[in-house]
């Protein structure tokens, strides 16, 4: 693991409660659960407790900003799907060309 990835690793640990996420983002717990229902954020769940990462907090803040600009949750989801496909394709291409070198 590179130093950069090690530094950012904490961002992806699902350790933050919904109450703390609400305080950090300014979103209500109801809004956060709604964005989960719309498949815009994916907390870990155990025994009815949701746990979020710092990356989830960043994603929720991005969603909130887009919603303030009038972007629908459907449009946000479409953009997330497009970005994921592009990252996957880029990863596949990188893997393919590394093997040929």
TrEMBL record:
Listed GO MF terms: DNA binding; DNA-binding transcription factor activity
InterPro entries in the record: DNA-bd_dom_put_sf, MerR-type_HTH_dom, MerR_fam
Membrane-crossing segments per the record: none
Name listed for the protein in its UniProt record: HTH-type transcriptional regulator TnrA
Keyword match Transcription regulation: yes
Pfam families per UniProt: MerR_1
Residue ranges constituting the HTH merR-type domain according to the UniProt record: 15-82
Keywords for the protein's UniProt record, in alphabetical order: DNA-binding, Repressor, Transcription, Transcription regulation
């Amino acid at each position: 693991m590179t130093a950069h990835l090690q530094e950012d690793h904490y961002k992806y640990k699902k350790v933050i409660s919904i109450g703390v996420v609400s305080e950090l983002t300014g979103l209500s717990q109801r809004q956060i659960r709604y964005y989960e229902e719309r498949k815009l954020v994916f907390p870990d769940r155990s025994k009815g407790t949701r746990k979020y990462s710092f990356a989830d907090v960043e994603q929720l803040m991005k969603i909130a900003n887009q919603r303030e600009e009038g972007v629908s949750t459907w449009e946000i989801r479409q953009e997330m799907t497009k970005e994921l496909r592009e990252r996957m394709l880029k990863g596949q291409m990188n893997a393919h060309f590394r093997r040929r070198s």
